[in-house]
Predict the 3D structure of the following.
Amino acid sequence: MRDLLTISVDAMSGDRGASPAVDAVCAMLTEAPGLRVLLFGDEGQLNSLLSDLPADAAARVELRHAPDVVAMDEAPRDAVRRKKSSSMRLAIDAVKAGEAQACVSAGNTGALMAIARFALKTLPGISRPAIISAVPARGGRTCMLDLGANADCNARQLFEFAVMGTVVVSDIYAIERPRVALLNIGEEQIKGTDAIREAAAQLESSSLNYVGFVEGNDIFSGAADVIVSDGFTGNVALKTMEGLARFVALQTRRRFRKNWASRLAGLAALPVLRSLQASLDPRRYNGASLVGLNGIVIKSHGSADSVAWQTAIRSAMLEVDKGVPVQISRLLETQLTETQAP
Amino acid sequence: MRDLLTISVDAMSGDRGASPAVDAVCAMLTEAPGLRVLLFGDEGQLNSLLSDLPADAAARVELRHAPDVVAMDEAPRDAVRRKKSSSMRLAIDAVKAGEAQACVSAGNTGALMAIARFALKTLPGISRPAIISAVPARGGRTCMLDLGANADCNARQLFEFAVMGTVVVSDIYAIERPRVALLNIGEEQIKGTDAIREAAAQLESSSLNYVGFVEGNDIFSGAADVIVSDGFTGNVALKTMEGLARFVALQTRRRFRKNWASRLAGLAALPVLRSLQASLDPRRYNGASLVGLNGIVIKSHGSADSVAWQTAIRSAMLEVDKGVPVQISRLLETQLTETQAP
């Protein structure tokens, strides 16, 4: 029999409470007979949500009581100091203790990153962990990092992000030599910051598949598999997308509801509009990874439903299966040897 | 009779050649009897494009031959040094010489900014000029700056952008006390860069209507009238919007063309989809301003058609009418007096 793979799940920290997390855990336990789950949260609440689970699946979930919850607006520093018995902290501690191979949480990103850094520490050779996620693009998707863990980044950190992004994309999406690009702006006069120009030079002399600079519009053009930026720029780009997508959806609804003719047209167009929305649906892309840590931590959207939670758990299982942290260390070592060679 | 208002037009530097610029000039001369235009470009070409103009309008356009053109991919430095007889340079020189009150060009932004800075110089008290433009948002629009003129910005520069944005928005959109926000990211742990935090402190103690930090998604939420950022972040956000809008349009077309049922639905939905596209149409928002200079320079989209060109010329006329540069100097002076007061 194949070894069981154990995921620790923080069921309490998302916007929608424990229910979508537990639903997803139940579905995944049924789907994946090799999966074991440590479920952290309020014992009473979780027990009642788990009551319908078939015996086979129930045998593979272990409920662990956590009396505390990290709030969505809690300052990361406070979460690290004060929430030592929160579901988030205990779920990450389970990874640190080797009881679980990965952790999934829908909690506040800043707190999750702070607790994960504190408990798991960064991989040797990595200065700062980063947040990576996929966004829809022509031909499939583009992965972007950093999405908000590090506001200012130097060239070395951008280079490390490129290494981490290469590993995640090749492992998760089975792309052999992912094309890596640096996010930049197009005006020649001020072609990027010093950090970006230096990172470009380092990437050009590396063995990574570096394809050069891209601009904001290239996120969706399929020009690269991995787009690297500092966390400030990446976060603004991500939030800009989310905002524009919501604005377009709102405008579309408003215009189709204007009068009975447009309502009829909307009805006719509904299947297409739904398939369009599904293709842009963040749930399909759910599961940002916190990379560069001594352990695997997946961040689900705060408002993730059961479907999105399942995607996040699947990402965690895949990263465990591929051994993402070990791969990052290995690729980084090769790069250092190469770039330091005479 | 009201004094004539003179706009210098660089008809040659856009992606689509002189025709949309000349068409727009003809339309605007007919629409605005107080408008006079100095038209810079290839004399032969422009003459033939102007041949149908009614006598009254023809009397208010003066054709000035420019033997050279700044290429779309020309390095700004080269444009300043080598293209002294280009349509772009001569059109800006006309503003410098006081022959025109504003200049409109659809040429390469970097070159336009470099030539404008070189020829017109910045306003007293302004460290760096910036690029400002409107994007669609709930309730109308949001104006953003800087969109790419300055990659790195310090707190003082961000503060100046806030002053310039306030003037442009109150003059152009008749909003009395525009709400000004700083673009930032949401993670508490790394709440922005030092420059942003310092700029926030300066804005809080100013008389501007500063409403705090916003995130990328707020660009479209109508949370602010002016959103201030460094030119790197602003440019990435703008290009990200353009890229996503194009991606969604492409996906929409593809899905409606899938089979005959979806084609029929697309036909029914066409009026709504068209009105939706129009509401997101960059042509309605065409005309970025280069602000902070001793003169008015409007940048039209490189691929602007005649409609977009007309919007740009209208913006130029409005800025002349309101005296935007003088207003900026005045508001800046008030701020300095206030913040330096004991």
Observations:
- The radius of gyration of chain B is 21 Å.
